[in-house]
Amino acid sequence: IKRITTETIRSMKSKEKITMLTAYDFTIAQMVDAGGVDAILVGDSASNVMAGHETTLPITLDQMIYHAQSVVRAAKKALVVVDLPFGSYQSDPQRALDSSVRIMKESGAHAVKLEGGIEIEKSIKRIINAGIPVMGHLGLTPQSIYQFGTYKVRAKEEAEAEKLMSDAKLLEELGAFSVVMEKIPAQLAKKVTENISIPTIGIGAGPHCDGQVLVVHDMLGMTHEFKPKFLRQYLNLYDEITKAVNNYVADVKSVNFPNENEQY
Ligand code: KIV
Ligand code: NA
C-alpha cells in the first residue's frame, strides 16, 4: 500500500475529495485506515471522547503523544495528523516547535495541526521551517471555547468572515499544506476554498470544501446524545454495544455463558 503524504493531499485539491476521520487508539485506527480514509486526525477531541472532559483544554502533550503512538502503529496508508493541545504552542514559537518536535519524534506521526491564524503566525513559520508539515484550523476552534462562550456557528458576521478569509490566505502563504474549517456558513467555506490554493477540509462547513472530517465516534453513533445538524451517523453503535453488553450480562446471570463449547 502506498502511503498518503502531505503532497498527495495538496495534489487532491479540486481533483478528488479528501476524506479524514479522527482516531485515538490502535483498534479503531486500524479500521479507519482499512476503510480507506486519506488522513487520520489524532484530534484533541480525545479530551472529550476518550477522557470524558467537557472541553478539549485539559488534554496534555504527553497524552496526545500516547494516542498518536497508538494510531501510527495502526495506519498503513493514511497520513497521520496530530493536534497540538491547548497550552503547548500559544506562548511562543520555540515552545510550539518543541511540542511539534516531540510529537514527530516520539509518535512517528506525519504532520501537526494548530488552531488559529495571525495570532500564531510566528509559531507556524517556525514549525514549517523545521520541516514539519502544518495543517491549520479556523472557524470554531474549540480551544477558544471560553472566549466564544458557545459552540454555535462562527463567522456569520462580516468582520469575522473577513478575518477567516485573511487567516486562510496567511496559512497558505506560510506554507500550511491544508486547513480545517469548522462550523462556518457553507457559502463562506466555498469562497475560501475558491480563493486559496491549499485544500480546505470542512466539518460543519458545507459541501464545497476540498474534503470532509468527522469525529469517528460521532459518525459511528458511539457518542451518546451528540447530534449537531452537520453530523451524519453511519451506525448507532451506542445502542448496538449497550444491547450486546446487556445480552452478555443476561447470559452470565442465567449461566448460559460459557456453554460446553466455550470451556476447556
Ligand atoms: O479534535 C478534533 O477532532 C478536530 C476535528 C473536529 C477537526 O480538531
Ligand atoms: Na482538535
Task: Describe this protein's structure.
By secondary structure, the protein is of the alpha/beta class. The chain folds into 2 domains: 6-233, TIM Barrel (Alpha-Beta Barrel); 236-264, no CATH class. 41% of the residues lie in helices and 14% in strands. The chain is built from 11 helices and 8 strands. Strands 1-2-3-4-5-6-7-8 form an 8-stranded parallel barrel, surrounded by 6 helices. Helix 5 crosses helix 6. The longest helix is centred in the middle third of the chain and has 17 residues, at 158-174. It is globular and about 65 Å long. It starts with 5 loop residues before the first helix and ends in an 11-residue tail after the last helix. The structure holds 3-methyl-2-oxobutanoic acid and sodium ion (NA). 3-methyl-2-oxobutanoic acid binds next to strand 6.
Q: Which SSEs are present, and which pair or pack?
A:
Layout: H1 6-11, E1 18-22, H2 26-34, E2 39-42, H3 46-49, H4 61-74, E3 79-83, H5 93-107, E4 111-113, H6 121-129, E5 134-139, H7 145-148, H8 158-174, E6 178-182, H9 186-195, E7 200-203, E8 211-214, H10 216-219, H11 237-253
The structure holds 3-methyl-2-oxobutanoic acid (KIV) and sodium ion.
